[in-house]
Description:
Two copies of one chain form a homodimer. The first copy, chain A, has two domains: 3-139, Rossmann fold (3-Layer(aba) Sandwich); 147-201, Winged helix-like DNA-binding domain superfamily/Winged helix DNA-binding domain (Arc Repressor Mutant, subunit A, Orthogonal Bundle), CATH 1.10.10.10. Helix content of chain A is 53%, strand content 15%. Chain A has helices at 12-22, 37-46, 63-73, 88-96, 109-120, 128-139, 147-157, 162-169, 173-186, 192-201; strands at 3-8, 28-34, 51-55, 78-83, 101-104, 125-126. In chain A, helix 8 (162-169) crosses helix 9. At the A-B interface, helix 1 and helix 10 of A face helix 1 and helix 10 of B.
Amino acid sequence: MVASVFIVDDHYMVIEGIRSILQHEKSIEWAGHASNAASCLAFLKQQQPDVILMDINLPDKSGIDLCKEVKEMYPSVFIIGLSTFNQQSFIQKMMENGASGYVLKNATQEELTEAVTEVMKGKTYLSLEASQALRKNISAEMPVLTRREKEVLELIVDGMTNNEIAQKLFISVTTVDTHRKNLLAKLSAKNTASLVRIATQMHLV
Amino acid sequence: MVASVFIVDDHYMVIEGIRSILQHEKSIEWAGHASNAASCLAFLKQQQPDVILMDINLPDKSGIDLCKEVKEMYPSVFIIGLSTFNQQSFIQKMMENGASGYVLKNATQEELTEAVTEVMKGKTYLSLEASQALRKNISAEMPVLTRREKEVLELIVDGMTNNEIAQKLFISVTTVDTHRKNLLAKLSAKNTASLVRIATQMHLV
DNA sequence: AATTCTATCCCTGAAAAACAGGAGATTTTA
DNA sequence: TAAAATCTCCTGTTTTTCAGGGATAGAATT
């Protein structure tokens, strides 16, 4: 059985690299490529590949969102996340949104082909680094923020004061302050500065 | 004349992609590749290629630093910076450290080969996006921070208060406050939160 | 030699954030 | 349905930041 593989990545060199890696594999067929989410969706209207290798960072929308959309429209297509970083939050969100695997861009030829073949069997493939990142952080950190907390956090990062946030969200300043206190506690930050740094480093905003 | 090209990039897929792109070019010869700065330097002790394609993000040291070192030791080697982002500060630093060109990873085959051939002639090659980024920001923003201001900024981002910073640097709290005010002014930030966000986004810390 | 830049220090007063310690109402979920 | 989570609001106090000045001394530049 031959698996057709499609690639979404905004870097031509990466597309070329993957193509060059996979072309030797007899069990894998090149379905095509897209450099952004829009042309990926356009392609899928015409035909559906078996597997999509999907970069997390796309110019028009995040791979995490695209993954969700594609899986809703074409549930039978397997998606493998692709990125340079093994950030736990990314990997987790990608898997939550229906991805079947996650591979880092420094993966070897063996890893990549194994990922595709395993996923085709309906299994899940996580590269060593990815699964380690997932394991390490699932047990520890990565706090769960509520919808409102995320909302407040983003406005704080945008440089708004409690007062401004309160007006924007039509709630009391004291409420905003409470959310802020909870954010500080959840992210183990002692003040605004560390809160913003932690939030950006964790890619929460 | 045949140009030998060496690549330093920590992503196997990118190396494969570049190799696949350049192998069709008769005027270009593949010298080899390294996935970190250390093995790059080790390779250069044995032989020197004509051109090095060098990623900005390397696991052991930044491409910007590596560029400087290589140019000091082997001034005749041409270096082309390689990265996913067209951040003005990165491009500028790379060029200041002796690079002859800068190419983004979404470059086409034509761009990449042109970059190599132009640089071989002793010319400078900047991809369209790179030169635009350079032009746009050189005229505007990118504030110049003094050594002390950078120091204070880093401690602020680390979540320290003026008081703590003052004790750490053995200066008065009012001095720290002055630096802080200057930072807010220079980065056009209205408070700590936006200061931290801007600093991290500009990769100042 | 004069100017600019940098780093240092000081002041006042207002605004904002951090910290402590509650509590009621609604939604989710087990 | 009962428990847990979430969102909401409150009263205080203390600490930190922000805004607005001004000032001195040394280093670098013109």
